[in-house]
Design brief:
Blueprint (H helix, E strand, L loop, with lengths): L15 H24 L7 H17 L23 E3 L9 E2 L2 H15 L9 E7 L2 E8 L2 E7 L5 E3 L2 H4 L15 E9 L2 H13 L8 H9 L4 H5 L4 E10 L7 H10 L9 E3 L2 H14 L7 E8 L2 H7 L9 E5 L3 E14 L5 E12 L2 E7 L3 H5 L19 E6 L6 E6 L23 E2 L8 E2 L6 H11 L12 H10 L5 H4 L2 H5 L15 H13 L2 E3 H7 L7 H11 L2 H35 L5 H12 L3 H12 L4 H13 L1 H12 L2 E3 L15 E5 L7 H10 L3 E3 L8 E4 L5 H9 L2 E3 L1 H8 L3
Parallel strand pairs: 2-11, 19-20, 21-22, 21-23, 23-24
Antiparallel strand pairs: 1-6, 3-9, 3-10, 4-5, 4-7, 7-8, 10-11, 12-13, 12-15, 13-14, 15-16, 17-18
Helix pairs in contact: 1-2, 12-13, 17-18, 19-20, 19-21, 19-22, 21-22
Nicotinamide-adenine-dinucleotide binds next to helix 1, helix 2, strand 3 and strand 8.
């Protein structure tokens, strides 16, 4: 009931306030997805969902240009280079590509190219079409024919130095003959399906991370600190582009590709010059038909203007060239029989329905499970009660259409009622937890049913433990998901704090020593205990994240840690807010009710009145109210995360378990931003236009590090606007409001030395 309903609102129907909230939500989502995908090689969204979110934010921004934030995902490429590697600033930026999802989009692309160049509709325009390889891009710098540097794309401006790793890729020559004195060759690092399957088999045998798809495997293998590991991974490289050159390779795109081939690079054999749109679409269809047989993943076809002089005239937008576009393939589909629906219980108690399928090949991968999302999805309606699949429900025994969007978790698109077996009953979604028998409840406004058993539910306890030891949480060497599960089954570890008493209970001199277990010895047991001990001292943000509280992910945890600084201050603030949290829930319930009655009476809903009345009825002390408001106001938090956090700390059993854990730890404070002597501490800043000396993200991080708040839109509360070239409406608005506006040089001068 606390969920903002901006997420399913059509863009056309949004108010400015909803649009701003939705932009904030999508920005957070895309930021997190970008880091997971580009920096951690471990996606949290599938590509279709990612693309849809990005398109949605683009649509909102074009309807509300003033709300476009300085950190808009539509203005960025990839994710910043990881701090694990040294950094390389690209001599020429590495861009992303615009997307086309339909033939109409492709025709628009050709039209806009012609319009930009002032070409008639029937003037010849050659386009090179080639597969879009689903890997990661790499830039190779050759000086006097020798490979001197290799860099990942990073955020397009600064990439990671992976020179030693690149030298381990067979298709990448260390020396080339007859090349321009200075030559940057760009292309895609990827892994074949066969190599991917073999790698995952080896990884799983060795008890190590298995990769979700070949792209993640390629990225994870290239981005290794130890190039020896890269060398053991079978990576390949297709060259398709270039960066800085001391002399041109050729006068056309195709000519340049041929030149790269002649220099000893591998280029894609399906590359062709297309004289017309019809030829482009025909090649697209041919490549799509061959997709499953290629032996490596491609996710579309890239079209590029062939004439390099025209490419130069067309130039680039902020993140994409005007002379190229990626024509994406639709998600792949296959029909199969749904044998059973099983319910899995997750870390937060969510009951997730999973379809067990008769195995079927989708896009070259055998699929036997698919997510069914939630009970509404099975019943054929969405969260607001509107029919999906025209209201067709899904039953055990049905024939269903499966698709893999972006290769993560397969989904079900449709069901074939003509093949439904006789006597199939509608699926009865359980109202008690299949793992512990507690009531499974569904809060109004929530699409998910949750087990109310909390820590007494073994499924939740195990999932919480797995989360606790995960990489972004405690990350204890040697204590992975499998082992935690085993210890839990054995009764050795019931909750996180038990990890820290493991040695006392199962050390060498105990009755059931770990070293005597099968597969263990004195040394390996000692290693595990030592690894656990090393994590007794741990930064605050990791501790918060490790608790596995709903809506409190890595980003929110970091925000909380930065704001409160240490554990005691956080606990104090949250404890103070406890009485207000119930009132907040009551108020949000009152808002839902007011909306419904207002709609029934055909009048405008009086939301703020309803909220105020509910708060007044609850009689919350001013201190508690102030503590609650302060928590919600912490940058990056909001009511949803605040509510989840407070309720976790307020609950008897959960709180007791948190306290037991904290007692074993030395929780390292996170230093607050150095605001002393900061010229912008406490001020609200807006960045607009193009920054040339630092990226937006860097500028934002810098400003926040100095204690400033960075906002996306100019208002009377804005203290300072930093406007680069191309600043439009925001700079104008600032002038109208009398807000101070400075340029980038002014900004750098201001913060220099701070
Ligand atoms: N699942 C997620 O959470 C998530 C997160 C971020 C990005 N993504 C996916 O990545 C895409 C966006 O990332 P992006 O910025 O890399 O854009 P992109 O993948 O749409 O296109 C740009 C990239 O295509 C690659 N490419 C492959 N073959 C090419 C060729 N022949 N010519 C030119 N380029 C070629 C290059 O690496 C280039 O950088 C999205 O469409 C999304 O599907 C997914
Ligand atoms: Zn349960």
């Amino acid at each position: 009931m606390t969920r903002a309903r901006s997420d399913d609102m059509p863009v056309d129907a949004m108010t400015g306030e909803m649009a701003e909230a939705e932009i904030a939500r999508l920005t957070d989502l895309l930021d997190a997805a970008n880091v997971a995908y580009h920096s951690e090689d471990d996606p949290i969204l599938d590509d279709a969902a990612y693309d849809a979110a990005k398109r949605r934010i683009g649509a909102i921004e074009s309807r509300f240009p003033d709300l476009k934030r300085s950190d808009s995902p539509t203005e960025r490429v990839g994710a910043p280079a990881s701090a694990t590697f040294s950094k390389i600033t690209h001599a020429r930026r590495m861009l992303s590509l615009g997307n086309a999802f339909s033939e109409e989009d492709v025709a628009d692309f050709a039209r806009s190219v012609r319009a930009y160049l002032g070409l008639d509709a029937d003037a010849p325009l050659e386009i090179v079409a080639e597969p879009k390889i689903d890997g990661l891009s790499l830039s190779l710098r050759y000086e006097e024919g020798r490979l001197v540097q290799a860099a990942t794309r990073g955020d397009g401006l600064v990439g990671e130095n992976v020179t030693a790793n690149a030298l381990c890729v067979d298709d990448i020559p260390e020396r080339v003959e007859g090349a321009p004195e200075l030559m940057e060759v760009r292309g895609e690092v990827y892994m074949t399906h066969a190599d991917f399957a073999a790698l995952n088999a080896r990884q799983s045998e060795a008890g190590q991370k298995v990769f979700a798809n070949p792209r993640n495997a390629a990225a994870g293998s290239l981005r290794q600190l130890d190039a020896g590991i890269t060398a053991s991974r079978p990576l390949r490289f297709f060259a398709y582009a270039w960066g800085e050159l001391s002399a041109p390779l050729a006068e056309t795109q195709m000519g340049s590709i041929e030149r790269l081939e002649a220099l000893g690079f591998t280029t894609n054999p399906l590359t062709e010059v297309c004289p017309t749109i019809e030829a482009m679409l025909a090649l697209y269809a041919r490549i799509e038909a061959q997709r499953a047989m290629l032996g490596y993943d491609i996710d579309g076809v890239v079209y590029k203007v062939n004439d390099l002089a025209l490419q130069r005239r067309l130039g680039t937008r902020s993140t994409t060239p005007r002379w190229a576009i990626a024509h994406k393939f639709p998600a792949e589909l296959a029909w199969t029989r749904l044998e059973r629906i099983e319910i899995q219980v997750g870390r937060t108690g969510a009951l997730s329905p999973v379809a067990r399928l008769a195995p079927v090949t989708v896009g070259g991968v055998v699929v036997s499970n698919a997510t069914l999302h939630n009970e509404d999805y099975i019943a054929g309606r969405d969260a607001s009660g509107q029919p999906i699949r025209e209201g067709r429900d899904i039953r055990e025994g049905d024939w269903v259409q499966v698709y893999r969007a972006g290769d993560v978790i397969p989904k079900i698109a449709d069901v074939d009622l003509t093949r439904r077996p006789d006597g199939a009953d509608p699926f009865a979604f359980p109202e008690i937890c299949p793992e512990c028998g507690s009531a499974a409840e569904r809060e109004p406004g929530d699409s998910v049913r949750r087990c109310s058993g909390g820590l007494t539910c073994p499924a939740q306890a195990v999932e919480k433990l797995k989360h606790f030891v995960s990489r972004a949480a405690f990350d204890i060497e040697g204590l992975g998901a499998k082992l935690v599960e085993e210890f839990h089954r054995e009764g050795w570890i019931a909750e996180p704090s038990d990890i820290f008493t493991l040695e006392a209970r199962h050390g060498d001199d105990t009755e059931a020593p770990l070293k005597d277990r099968e597969g263990w010895g004195a040394q390996s047991a000692r290693n595990l205990f030592a690894a656990i001990d090393r994590k007794r001292s741990i930064p605050l943000d990791r501790v918060i994240f490790s608790l596995g509280i709903r809506h409190v992910g890595e980003v929110v945890s970091a925000d909380l840690a930065r704001h409160y600084g240490d554990w005691a201050s956080l606990i104090e603030a949250v404890d103070l807010a406890v009485p207000a949290e119930r009132a907040h829930l009551a108020a949000e319930a009152a808002v839902v009710e007011e909306r419904a009655t207002a709609a029934a009476d055909g009048r405008r809903a009086r939301i703020s009145d309803a909220r105020a009345r509910a708060w007044a009825e609850r009689d919350v002390s001013p201190d508690a109210r102030a503590a609650w408001d302060a928590l919600v106001a912490v940058d990056g938090i909001g009511a949803v995360a605040a509510q989840a956090l407070v309720s976790a700390f307020a609950q008897g059993a959960e709180r007791a378990s948190i306290d037991r854990l904290a007692a074993f730890l030395d929780i390292e404070p996170v230093s607050a931003p150095a605001t002393e002597g900061s010229p912008v501490a406490g001020k609200t800043l807006v960045f607009t236009g193009t920054l040339e000396r630092m990226t937006r993200q860097e500028a934002k991080a810098r400003a926040e590090g100095l204690g400033a708040k960075v906002s996306g839109s100019v208002s009377a509360k804005t203290d300072l606007v930093i406007a680069g070239p191309g600043a439009g409406s925001k700079a104008k608005k600032a002038a109208e409001l009398g807000v101070e506006v400075i340029d980038e040089d002014g900004w750098i001068a201001l913060i220099e030395g701070a």
